[in-house]
Amino acid sequence: MPNRLAHATSPYLLQHADNPVDWWQWEPAAFDEARRRGVPVFLSVGYSSCHWCHVLAHESFEDELTAAYMNEHFVNIKVDREERPDVDAVYMEAVQAATGQGGWPMSVFMTADAEPFYFGTYFPPEPRHGMPSFTQVLEGVYAAWTGRREEVGEVARKITGDLAGRTFSSEGTGRPTEESQAGALLSLTRDYDPTSGWFGSGDTRFPPSMTVEFLLRHHARTGSEGGREMAEGACEAMARASLFDQVGGGFHRYVLRQQAGGALVPHFEKMLYDNALLCRVYAHLWRATGSDLARRVALETADFMVRELRTDQGGFASALDADSEDPLTGEHVEGAYYAWTPAQLREVLGEADGEVAAGYFGVTEEGTFEHGTSVLQLPQDGPAVEAGRLAGIKERLLAARGRRPAPGRDDKIVAAWNGLAIAALAECGAYFERPDLVERATEAADLLVRVHMDGRARLSRTSRDGRVGTNDGVLEDYGDVAEGFLALASVTGEGVWLEFAGFLVDLVLDRFTAEDGSLYDTAHDAEKLIRRPQDPTDTAAPSGWTAAAGALLSYAAHTGSQAHRTAAERALGVVQALGPRVPRFIGHGLSVAEALLDGPREVAVVGDPEDAALALLHRTALLGTAPGAVVAAGLPRGADGGGGEFPLLAERTLVHDLPTAYVCRHFVCARPTTDPVELAEQLGAVRP
């Protein structure tokens, strides 16, 4: 019989709706029930595409005896971290502080006042590798609860007090400087391995998308060849590794070196935020260098998002699972959808092309993954293959893979990640003259306005099947969606997107900003947790703090609003403090700081939208590498109703009745030009 999760909208929660565990969602009634019964709360946090979340569920939450013990001795709450990033952030901070590490599934035991006292992540069904079994943990926690209640309460109060005292502030740090940005570059240089192309020395490698964006912007602004070389090296390493899906496009979540000198093997989840960020970074690398590899990866990633993540409502699903059914065993295992043997390649492609594909993609008889299979990659010493033949090979492999059982898809729409996808697809469409990608970006933006905003003075975090979720957006939603709208405004010349972005950044100022200019992850009127979450560091995606700072800065450049610029500068004080010390954990903030130091430049392109000369100037402006430049294109504001909501187009005149571009900083403009080549020189564009 289904439990309470049967009424959830989250695919992750619905996966647990048939568990024998009497799950609750995160709601006051659950804590009231724990208080009434006098039992502790067990909080389990995960997400749909998390491999070990599925393992824990299968081993323990589906087990009748384990579930019976949980139901008798605990109130059990299940949370989708992607729906409630605020809950996840607060308790993950406690887990990391107590254990020195974190991850998902996250397991937290707490009082009925939501005060945590014991933590962990995955627990096996029996003792293993020095870890207690999940049942032992449950029994131990309940024994402490009944036998040492006062001690447990004291621990919970101390942990809660320590968490409540942790705050970040930009006050007194000052805005980023040339020196702090150079310090960040130096730290990255020390952390970069030019042989492998990866940052850091650990066996687990996450894609450094925001770090690469900073390096590209720093090179564009300062001419730093070292920064450009690191950016190119990192992008080539990612594109060649099994991190990138060589057949279907798009990136997996991370790669892991299985043993010393061994192959990099992916953790096979495909997350929307990774692919949106990397799609945009590779497009920017092409914009800066003209790299054919960058162009191919950007477009293949964009096409992957549209083909496999786009929903019927026009938005983009959160993720694809790591696991899928192995056709031979019927078991759900990691990587079954993506791995190949030489025999399987020959079966699909024939002997000749099968041998070519095995050599080109590094598929060996011994295998580089599990059970003699390999995950496709592009070895440095692989053979050259004629482009037409390679395209045919990839097309046939993709079709054959499509006949395998596919990984599950978490089809909820997360506002923030769709904002990132909108920006990436809009810019790819403009750069590579793919209007279909701009259309897909516009459709996703329409969905966010219709469903996630829907006339309310706030933004909802998620939706599914066109039905809005119950959770309010957090700061990253406001920042990333505003960024997507601003990119769409620059690409389409439709001022309504600037207007929507302004609505969101005004809410950031009103509901998320402290008096000292620091930012909180939740609004001032959000549900009160044991602490108000606040974290400026960028992890797999931009933090809400740095995403909001970027949107505030771009909006100020579009409108001349000093209030929004001042808010951006104050928020970026944290980059001054953290950039030289931990640049890989503030990469997006460093990128926004590059835009601040460059202006950012404001570009107005005026003329008849039907004029091909205007289209050429507009595309040239978008291809400029000046960090964070904003672009407005259309009729001069006020002329025949033209200009819409673009203040940059106000009082702009045509030169010799030709479409004309103005490049400005702080609304002080260089000589207007009608020449695309001259405009490219003003903006650093290398491909007019």
Molecular structure report:
There is one protein chain. The chain has 688 residues and is an alpha+beta fold. The protein folds into four domains: 4-164, Glutaredoxin; 178-322 and 409-598, Glycosyltransferase (Alpha/alpha barrel); 338-401, no CATH class; 601-683. 48% of the residues lie in helices and 12% in strands. It is built from 25 helices and 21 strands. The strands form six sheets. Strands 1-3-2-4-5 form a five-stranded mixed β-sheet, with helices on both faces. The chain has a five-stranded antiparallel β-sheet with strand order 9-10-15-16-17. Strands 19-18-20-21 form a four-stranded mixed β-sheet, with helices on both faces. Helix 16 runs antiparallel to helix 17, helix 20 (544-559) packs antiparallel against helix 21 and helix 24 packs parallel to helix 25. The longest helix has 19 residues, at 435-453. The radius of gyration is 26 Å and the shape is globular.
